[in-house]
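Quick one, C-alpha cells below:
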C-alpha cells in the first residue's frame, strides 16, 4: 500500500470539497443571495480515503476494483455484497472467511455465517456464506485484514449552489468549468 499516494488522493478529494463549498459561498456573497438550492453531483472516492460518515446519506452508483471497469451498485447493500464477493474470489481471503464463518458475532446475531436465518439483513457472499448487512462492512474488511485501498466508490452527492435568480458572475465560469472536469460522468454499465 502506497501511503504517500493515498494521502495525496485524500488531499485532492478534500481540496475539491473545500473548493466546491467555497465557490458556492462566494457566489452567494457576490450576488447578495442567502438561499441556496441543492443539486446532485457525481463524486468518486477511494474507500481508504473517505470516511463512512462522509458517505452517509449519499446514493451509491458504482464500485471499481483496481484499475478496472465500474460495476453498477445502486444500493449500499449491493456495494457491500460486491466488495465482499470480489474479496471472497481471492483464495486466501475465502479461506479466512470460511474460518471465521459462525465465529464472528455481534451482540445479538451472527455477522458472518453459513445461514441467513440468524441475520436481520443477510447478504449472500457465496454458497453457505452470508454477511449481516447491518454490520459495518469497513470494520469487517479491517477485521479480516483485507487491503481495500484500490477500491473506489462512485456516488451521488448533494452540492449547494446559489439560487438561479442571481446575476452572472464572470469569475465563476472558470471555476464551474474546472469543477465539471473534476467530476466523473456516469458510464452505462
Amino acid at each position: 500500500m502506497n501511503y504517500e499516494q493515498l494521502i495525496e488522493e485524500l488531499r485532492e478529494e478534500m481540496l475539491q470539497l473545500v473548493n466546491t463549498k467555497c465557490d458556492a459561498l462566494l457566489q452567494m456573497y457576490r450576488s447578495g443571495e442567502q438561499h441556496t438550492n441543492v443539486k446532485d453531483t457525481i463524486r468518486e472516492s477511494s474507500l481508504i480515503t473517505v470516511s463512512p460518515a462522509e458517505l452517509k446519506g449519499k446514493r451509491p452508483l458504482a464500485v471499481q476494483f483496481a484499475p478496472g471497469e465500474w460495476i453498477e451498485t445502486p444500493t449500499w447493500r449491493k456495494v457491500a455484497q460486491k466488495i465482499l464477493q470480489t474479496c471472497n474470489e481471492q483464495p486466501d481471503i475465502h479461506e479466512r472467511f470460511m474460518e471465521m464463518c459462525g465465529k464472528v458475532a455481534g451482540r445479538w446475531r451472527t455477522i458472518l455465517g453459513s445461514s441467513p436465518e440468524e441475520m436481520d439483513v443477510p447478504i449472500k457472499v457465496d454458497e453457505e456464506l452470508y454477511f449481516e448487512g447491518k454490520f459495518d462492512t469497513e470494520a469487517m474488511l479491517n477485521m479480516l485484514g483485507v487491503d481495500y485501498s484500490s477500491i473506489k466508490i462512485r456516488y451521488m452527492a448533494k452540492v449547494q449552489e446559489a439560487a438561479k435568480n442571481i446575476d452572472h458572475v464572470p469569475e465563476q465560469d472558470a471555476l464551474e468549468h474546472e469543477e465539471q472536469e473534476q467530476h466523473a460522468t456516469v458510464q452505462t454499465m
